[in-house]
From TrEMBL:
Pfam families: OMP_b-brl_3. It comes from the Bacteria. Residues 293-713 form the Outer membrane protein beta-barrel domain. SUPFAM superfamilies: Porins. Residues 1-18 form the signal peptide. The lineage of its organism: Bacteria, Pseudomonadati, Bacteroidota, Flavobacteriia, Flavobacteriales. This is TonB-dependent receptor. Its main location: membrane. Gene3D superfamilies: TonB-dependent receptor, beta-barrel domain (2.40.170.20). It is found in: Cell outer membrane. Keywords: Cell outer membrane, Membrane, Receptor, Signal.
Length: 738
């Protein structure tokens, strides 16, 4: 059921302007110093936007996470994830190396890292060939200040949030340096209960179904990391990084009331669906790094080897109960018991070499290898109370995947006004899936090998001191998550479930982006992306074995185009008392896909088609108001609006959210109180009507309105040099375990 909850919540993952899962944008913290003509606080370089925060009072008393949310083109709608305008995801790099932590550990790390340690923040909207990121991912690179003081410092963070339920979190981060040795560690924990309420309707001229009720998902999390870095001499460094996270979700429940009407006879049946799931997961990884500087120009060799162990254990019971129209239970009808363990073992290795030449010329070459083995020994048992019949459908699915990759990138600054970067990445993937117990012969052995050449180009031209123009082209791949490939179904009700699909293949994404910047404060971004073999979730609906069924099938669903134009501003007014970050744009989505067959069972449904284009207006503004002369009180007023638009599942109704935040700085303490989704407008509603008469309606309330209190305390020697952060060899695999 947890995967079902996650899957339905991901219906919000559609917006290209940093609003993928619009929930809240709570912590808007410090004042930004007024931009002057003597220093470029925000500027466009060859392949990235650069936000220079080294001398800004914005960083004082802030955390890295809070500072990132103040960065132009970057936002957070849920205080947990960071988004880049026009991108589906933001990958965090530190000093040019990707962080290897899972999502929750990364958030804890950023929220326990003092912002005073940051020199600048780089936003790379179209990453080059040397970056191992997927699909339309963007990169946020945090460049730390270089300080050499020995000593110990740390950061303590306490957080409490009241939405439908209360949630609490705490974390502590320590950073120690003694001469050539650096140690960085973090430990954090959280406890929360996620509540959601659904109204689901589907049907046609013959039948109408309605499901309504709540899903409650409690979670307990413990995690942390340990980074060790030792500088052997001026040219040689070694590092070791260990990350660990455990999640426990016991007693996750669904209570749903179902109404099924035969429109031909007029008869209506009522039933209850009650399910309970127990799940726990463990994610542990270890990375060993070696770095060799080969000259004084900055040339270097970087080697990584990593191992990842992921374990998830999940059991669930789902009951269908005959009821009357008042939801009174009559008798048990059906019981479905599932066990869905997932074991993932990965070994990864990377080698990167950067050769810098005189006259601003750089050549980068590298390669990577990933091998992943997954073991999914799924059990599915059902019992019919009326007939006394039972059925067992076990499925032991083994998946083995190897990825070989290599790249070359050339970067040249031709003049102070013009620079260019070009490269290509080649990737070869071999995979084999085996289903030992499958009755379907097609699942016994699924072997797929494919390769792809992915070119990249970036051009940047400074017209004059006030005007900059740049263009970038990128090609990427998106591979399905490992759990999406496991050929099992996640049951919501007896005839309404999600079906995973081992036949899903990787999709290809091609992106063009044109950017114009004026006075380092105003910008225009034009973007076009084409996704071939889009990986998504498609609703198939029809009468199978005499019952109207709705199956959400994971599949490749044709092609999709996204075109967008955005105008933005990042500027301070009234001598720094007001700082405003404002974006407004239009987006056009063009869908082109159809499906009529369940790829696992072969059941044929009426054709589901989506050949619809939509145009949408998008608005986002974040405003910080300094309330006193001493710069200790701040008010944040943040708002976003997303117009209705067409996605794969149908038409998504408009969304908006108003969030308010009050912050107080007191010595080394920071106190923040926020109210999220003040107007209760952040709710997902999707409607779809097919030409054949089938309709589908989804109303999802995640109870986003709430109050949040955060307390942060910084202690110790704040001048301690941060540990050298190391790019993990297994970082691509981690994203696919989520």
């Amino acid at each position: 059921m947890k995967k079902l909850i996650i899957s339905l919540s991901l219906l919000t993952g559609f917006v290209a302007f940093a609003q993928q899962n619009p929930k809240k944008d709570t912590v808007k913290t410090e004042n930004i110093k007024e931009i002057t003509m003597t220093k470029k606080i925000f500027k466009k370089e060859s392949d990235r936007f650069v936000f220079d925060v080294a001398a800004s009072p914005q960083a004082k008393g802030n955390t890295a996470f809070g500072l990132l949310k103040e960065t132009p083109l970057v936002s957070s709608t849920d205080d947990k994830t960071l988004k880049i305008a026009g991108k589906s995801n933001a990958v965090i790099f530190i000093d040019g190396r990707v962080t290897q932590m899972d999502a929750e550990s990364l958030v804890a790390f950023l929220k326990n890292t003092p912002a005073e340690n940051i020199q600048k923040i780089e936003v790379i909207t179209v990453p080059g060939s040397e970056y191992k990121v997927e699909s339309s991912d963007g990169i946020i690179n945090i460049v730390l200040k270089k300080k050499s003081s020995n000593g110990l410092n740390g950061n303590l963070r306490l957080n409490n949030e009241q939405n439908y339920h209360n949630a609490a979190a705490a974390g502590i981060s320590l950073n120690y340096r003694k001469d050539k040795l650096g140690v960085n560690a973090n430990f954090n924990g959280s406890e929360n209960i996620r509540e959601q309420y659904y109204i689901l309707r589907n049907g046609n001229a013959s039948a109408a179904n309605r499901t309504e009720g709540n899903l409650t998902d409690p979670n307990q999390n413990l995690g942390g990391y340990l980074n060790l870095d030792y500088q052997i001499n001026d040219n040689n460094s070694v590092g070791l990084t260990f990350n660990s996270r455990a999640n426990r979700s016991y007693g996750s429940k669904a209570n749903l009331f179902n109404t099924n009407t035969d429109l031909t006879s007029g008869e209506t049946d009522y039933s209850l669906t009650k399910s309970e799931e127990n799940a726990r997961s463990y994610n542990n990884s270890l990375n060993l790094n070696y770095e060799l500087k080969t000259d004084t120009l900055g040339s270097k060799l970087n080697l990584n080897a990593a191992g990842l162990l992921y374990r998830r254990f999940q059991t669930s019971e789902n009951f269908t109960i005959l009821a009357d129209k008042n939801q009174n239970q009559v008798e048990n009808l059906l019981k479905i018991m599932q066990a869905q363990p997932q074991l993932i073992d990965n070994f990864s290795a990377t080698a990167d070499y950067i050769q810098k030449f005189k006259k601003d010329f750089t050549v980068s070459v590298g390669g990577n290898f990933n091998n992943t083995k997954t073991d999914n020994d799924t059990k599915y048992n059902s019992f019919d109370y009326r007939s006394g019949n039972s059925a067992s459908m076990p499925n032991h699915f083994l998946y083995d995947e190897s990825i070989f990759g290599g790249y070359v990138t050339v970067d040249k600054v031709f003049s102070p006004k013009f620079s260019a970067k070009a490269g290509a990445r080649y990737e070869l993937t071999t995979s084999e899936g085996r289903s030992d117990n499958a009755q379907d012969e097609n699942l016994r052995n699924i072997k797929r090998d494919y390769d792809k050449l992915l070119p990249y180009l970036s051009l940047n031209y400074t017209i004059n001191e006030k005007n900059t123009l740049s263009y970038a082209f990128s090609s990427r791949m998106r591979r399905p998550s490992f759990w999406e490939l496991n050929p099992v179904k996640n049951v919501l009700t007896e005839f309404n479930y999600i079906q995973n699909n081992p036949f899903v293949k990787a999709s290809s994404v091609y992106t063009h982006e044109l950017t114009y910047m004026f006075k380092n404060s105003y910008f225009l971004i034009l973007n076009h992306s084409l996704t071939k073999d889009q990986i998504t979730q498609v609703p198939l609906q029809g009468v199978i074995d005499g019952k109207n069924q709705l199956r959400y099938i994971r599949t490749n669903f044709g092609d999709k185009q996204e075109m967008s134009a955005m105008i933005g501003m990042q500027k301070s007014f009234f001598k720094g008392y007001l700082t405003s970050n404002f974006n407004i744009g239009v987006q056009r989505n063009v869908n082109d896909g159809n499906l009529d067959t369940d790829p696992l069972t072969g059941d044929v449904f009426p054709m589901y088609e989506n050949h619809i284009a939509s145009n949408s207006l998008l608005i986002q503004t974040n405003n910080n108001i300094r309330l006193d002369e001493k710069k200790t009180w701040f008010l944040g007023v943040n708002y976003f609006y997303v117009d209705k638009q067409q996605i794969e599942l149908g038409q998504l109704n408009s969304l908006m959210s108003l969030d308010l935040n009050l912050k107080k700085l007191w010595n080394e303490w920071t106190f923040s109180l926020g109210v999220n989704d003040v107007l209760k407008t952040n709710k997902v509603v999707i409607e779809d009507l097919q030409s054949n008469g089938n309709y589908n309606f989804i109303d999802q309330n995640q109870y986003n309105q709430g109050v949040e209190l955060t307390i942060v305390y910084n202690f110790g020697n704040q001048k301690v040099k941060k540990v050298r952060n190391i790019e993990s060899a297994d970082k691509d695999i981690k994203s696919r375990t989520n």
